[in-house]
Amino acid sequence: MIHRNLAGPLLRLAKKMPVVAVTGPRQSGKTTLCRAAFPGIPYVSLEPLDVRDYAREDPRGFLEEHRDGAIIDEAQRAPGLFSYLQAEVDERPEPGRFILTGSQHFGLTEAITQSLAGRVALLTLLPPSLDELRRFPNPPGDLLATLWAGAFPRIFDQGLEPGRWLADYVTTYVQRDVRQVLNVPDLDAFTVFLRLAAGRTATELHLSGLGADAGVTHNTVRSWISVLEASFILFRVPAWHRNLRKRIVKASKLHFFDTGLSCHLLGIREPDQLRHHPLRGAIFETWVASEIYKARAHRALAPDLFHVRDTKKLEVDLLVDRGPEVVGVECKAGATVGSGFMDGLRAFSRLGQAQHPHLGRVLRLVYGGEATQRRGEVEVLPWSRVPDVEW
Questions:
Q1: Last residue of a domain, one of 79, 105, 124
Q2: Strand-strand pairing, 43-45 and 70-73
Q3: Mean pLDDT over residues 53-75, rounded?
């Protein structure tokens, strides 16, 4: 077990709120984190059918048994419990009394929205970021190994072979969860769709085109993408919302949370295959996007991630909107900084100065090399130092 960056925000919020909920993908370490953070609170999982039935059929009895508080794992499996939990914490609103976890974000969030609004703090735990991975005894040693292995903690905690574990993950969790939420009559079609989506990581999402390639309808793609988002398999990065005189292209970019999973779906079976793979740049951009997302989520911050592309070919891979300032990020997988790598960042800076003169700008190029540099207003950041700066 390693220390997780979310532990601090989790403990701080548990001192203020009667209920704290931790959501995220399956196997991201939610249960391990909560049990380590609150060793004195009883733990109960609603995964076993008999315990789940108890919570569903006799919620008052279930909560009476845990009147002094509990860590309730997979809490969304008993949605009716939340109305009774509301009455319980209204009667005794001691902070940190109940800690909830759930893998299906939409299920847990919906129940919280309906019953526990104002009484709960909601946090997201994703697979470990690069700095967290380095706390394991044998973390990946270079960029290609880091991209290929991904970041699910069980792989590193138990020294498992990433390809085998990820194959089981797709079958055991991804496909099962989709079947539980949606009536998917053709699992093979969904698997083809999932692989096609992996091939579009770090590109703008066009539902009709993806549906045509997968042989399913536009609405089916929309539904499947929504479930994969809710299960924390992938996320969309929208176009920057501060209008650049209506020149902006509005399509969202698609990213996978775990590059190991996307590599597995693309048939990349060893790290060295990435060296000359046509999607190496896209996979690297997705890794950077995911690392920034984790850096913010594990500090209890909204991701606030965007991208920029306008009709005159101005492009910035990622934009972190921090309110009074934005962080523009360009991602290049190569180990050598090319002369044109910063053109998009500089053009964006000039345009921002003209149209948003009071908006601060931080410009960063993240690349696959090892040296930190400063090129004018652009900070050149090696991939290994992504956790060392504030996002």
A1: 124
A2: parallel
A3: 95
Same domain for 296 and 351? yes
pLDDT in tens, 124-154: 999 999 999 999 999 998 999 999 999 999 9
Query: Can you say how many angstroms the Cα of residue 63 is from the centroid of all Cα atoms in its chain?
Result: 32
Q: What is this structure's pTM? A: 0.94
Beta-bridge mates of residue 138: none
Whether residues 141 and 113 fall in one domain: no
Residue 112: its H or E element: helix 105-115
Specify the CATH number for the domain of residue 88: 3.40.50.300
| Contact (Cβ atoms closer than 8 angstroms) between residue 139 and residue 133 | yes
Same domain, 223 and 315: yes
pLDDT band at 243 (very low <50, low <70, confident <90, very high): low
> Does residue 140 lie in a domain region?
yes
- Whether 95 and 120 have beta carbons less than 8 Å apart is answered as no
SS3 label, residue 241: coil
**Would you state the pLDDT for residue 354?**
81
For residues 214 and 296, state if they share a domain: yes
Question: What percent of the chain lies above the pLDDT cut of 90?
Answer: 77
Those residues whose C-beta lies under 8 Å from the C-beta of residue 252, and which sit 6 or more positions away, are 204, 205, 236, 237, 238, 239, 307
The count of other CB atoms within 10 Å of the CB of residue 284 is 26
Note the pLDDT of residue 248. Answer: 55
The answer as to whether 1 is a domain residue is: no
Record the tokens describing residue 294, joined without a space: 């984790």
| Domain housing 271 | 130-388
